[in-house]
Input
Amino acid sequence: MIPTSKQALSRRQILAGGAIAGLSGAIGLSLLKPRSAMASEDDVANDLGILNTALYYEHQAIWAYGFAAPQLSETEVGQAVLALALRNQADHMEHRDLLASVITSLGGMPVMAEESYDVSAYIEAGEGNLDSDVNIAKLALALEVDAAIAYGNEAAQFKTPALVTAGVSIAATESAHATAIRAAFISLGVDIYHVPVAFINGDTRSEWVLMVE
Output
């Protein structure tokens, strides 16, 4: 039985994996306070809303990898998926911590992690499952693809220019996560491309995800 979230948000709004990893280098926390002092309250509230949504999905990503990891088998495939999952989860933990710092520096309250999150929409769509090593990897791929798409879409909504730049760069990081998962499938003999198309967006999403067979 798949745990469900206390709040339902569209999976198309996902700002998960790789979130704001480049913020510390791209803008630095020290630059946010002067920027926020010059910005209007509405602009700061707008940016905080986007950042907190990103933090929500960082929490979700950390939970998803943690929930799935114990269900992976002891086979070579299962352990390969586990190694990749743990690397990605570690990234998400760093992103979570940095996001919380950014939100706090802007005077906001970071959203707290929930006990569980709902990934049933992905499972019902056939974009992964928790019943095998391969399907767990497909679920992770779908989550990371949506993270890349969402960051590309949401970056333009930031009012702080430095956050726009960082958001676009983070979208690239998310697509790299997705590519790494696809590379794992290729190493297992699956005949796919690392990068299936020239763009990653809502129109090309189906080219990136791998369906449950």
The CA atoms of residues 104 and 133 lie 38 Å apart. Confidence is low (pLDDT under 50) at residues 1-34. The chain is about 60% helix and 0% strand. The domain at 18-208 is CATH 1.20.1260.10 (Ferritin).
